[in-house]
Design goal:
With 457 residues, the protein is mostly helical. It has 16 helices and eleven strands. The protein binds (2R)-3-hydroxy-2-(alpha-D-mannopyranosyloxy)propanoic acid.
Length: 457
């Protein structure tokens, strides 16, 4: 199958020679730079995205620290008064090039949205705390950068507080997401399972026109049925003017997902360190961290599967689907030694590693043996470099340097073999006729940025 985006190959070679990896990765970022921030991809994603901005900042940290800071500052221009940092901060010059664009979200005039910045109305995994901490470790001059860290500390603290105040109504220590797009892993089979419980009339889906399929062929992107549901949910949110917390009394998609909460928790840990460096009181942050780690174990651990799974709080049930997100709590220190051993065994089992006859690159986004697995379709199975980066750090934390090295070397091998794609086929032996194992958008920013971070460049 040929993907349309491969027309870009005249401009960007797909195969990257090993020696040129750093230069090639830097040129991906340079080509995607749009004024003050870097867009995730040349044409598919022409605005600034929330967690992308964090990963992208790491790609600049060693070579252009000023730009690394600019990525964060630009994203937080979009922060709402309640602390929420939106999924997208729209660039005025790319109006109409992405769906759903600013006007579809109808956030204009919503109380608390910054007046001069165009944003969507939902959020994304809060990576910013630990990104900030890593930037501090890489800062060429911490004294000169202190005002930046002081400013950002306040902003990120406000963001963390937002989750505990508005997305954790029962004060459990777990934040819920209100849309698959908030997870960042938009098309997991997990969300299909939640959708089976949500009934609506087709007339409740406003008319819309997808733009993603102009850039990537349909088998690599979500199906129409999923998009209808994404848009149905956006419509519910915009009809209620994003009015938190009341809006949640009657809203059908509220899921506590393990990766999202592990990221929230790990950002708390990072803020603890930053707060101490800045001489701030960190008592509240410590409490959040303890509470979230405990709740991850009490509520989202699946003893049967040996991994963390999501909980649908509206329909009051767990969704025992095995995804890479279920392994990410290694990052925040939640798992006990026994839980970590179970997850590590699962990661090395056929569920993720494949078999000697049919080996897989680590780590498939949805486990290879899940009924909803698809090696080509967005988030249904492909390997994502940001997930591998998060897992790499989790494995290091749990004293697994050799397995962590596999995550890193598989990622770099995929980049060398195919180029800086958005996602990759997890099978090492591609089916006959498959011309490339790289899918979605080529010249993808976080793939380049995290390659740079791994290469220490
Ligand atoms: C993808 O999501 C956007 C919606 O937010 C889309 O498909 O249009 C996801 O992979 C998400 O995690 C990512 O942040 C975004 C931009 O790279 O693209």
């Amino acid at each position: 199958m040929i993907h349309k985006i491969m027309t870009d190959l005249s401009v960007y070679p797909a195969h990257v020679a090993t020696g040129n990896l750093v230069a090639a990765a830097q040129s991906v970022l340079k080509n995607n730079l749009l004024g003050t921030f870097t867009k995730p991809a040349p044409t598919l994603y022409p605005h600034q995205w929330n967690w992308d901005a964090g990963f992208i900042a790491l790609g600049y940290a060693r070579s252009d620290f000023r730009q690394a800071c600019a990525e964060m500052t630009s994203l937080f221009r979009g922060q709402w008064a309640n602390g929420m940092v939106p999924q997208i901060v729209f660039s005025v010059e790319n109006v109409g090039k992405y769906f759903p664009g600013y006007f579809f979200w109808k956030t204009k005039g919503v109380p608390g949205k910054p007046r001069n910045t165009r944003t969507s109305g939902i959020t994304m995994p809060p990576v910013h705390g630990f990104i900030l901490n890593r930037l501090l470790q890489l800062a060429p001059d911490t004294k000169a950068a202190r005002p930046f860290f002081q400013r950002m500390f306040e902003r990120v603290l406000l963001l963390q507080r937002y989750y505990y105040k508005y997305r954790d109504p029962e004060r459990e220590g777990l934040a819920f997401i209100c849309h698959p797009w908030e997870s960042g892993m938009d098309n997991l089979p997990t969300w299909e399972e939640v959708f089976t419980q949500i009934k609506f009339d087709p007339s409740e889906v406003p008319p819309y026109e997808r733009r993603d399929l102009e850039h990537v062929d349909a088998p690599y992107r979500p199906r129409k049925a999923s998009y209808d549901r994404y848009i149905y949910l956006v419509n519910r949110l915009r009809e209620q003017r994003y009015r938190e917390p009341d809006i949640w009394n009657d809203y059908p998609f509220q899921v506590q997902e393990p990766m999202f909460n592990a990221i929230l928790s790990h950002s708390n840990e990072a803020l603890l360190e930053l707060g101490q460096w800045l001489g701030r009181d960190t008592g509240q942050i410590r409490e959040w961290h303890t509470q979230t780690n405990r709740a991850l174990n009490d509520k989202l651990w699946d003893e049967n599967k040996g991994i963390y799974v999501s909980y649908d709080r509206v329909h009051r049930r767990h969704i025992p689907i095995v995804t890479a997100g279920g392994l990410i709590p290694l990052l925040c220190g939640a798992p006990t030694a026994n839980q970590a051993a179970r997850m590590i065994a699962l990661l090395q089992s056929p569920a993720f590693a494949g078999t000697p006859e049919n080996p897989a690159w680590l780590c498939a986004s949805t486990a290879l043996d899940e009924p909803g697995f698809d090696p080509c379709r967005y988030w249904r199975g492909p390997v994502w470099i940001n997930m591998n980066w998060l897992l790499f750090h989790g494995l290091q934390r749990y004293g697994q340097p050799s397995l962590a090295t596999v995550l890193r070397s598989d990622s770099l091998d995929l980049v060398r073999k195919y180029g800086f794609w958005e996602y990759y086929n997890p099978w090492k032996n591609l089916p006959a006729g498959e011309v490339s194992g790289g899918y979605g958008s080529n010249q993808f920013s976080w793939t380049a940025a995290l390659t740079l971070d791994w290469l220490g460049a």
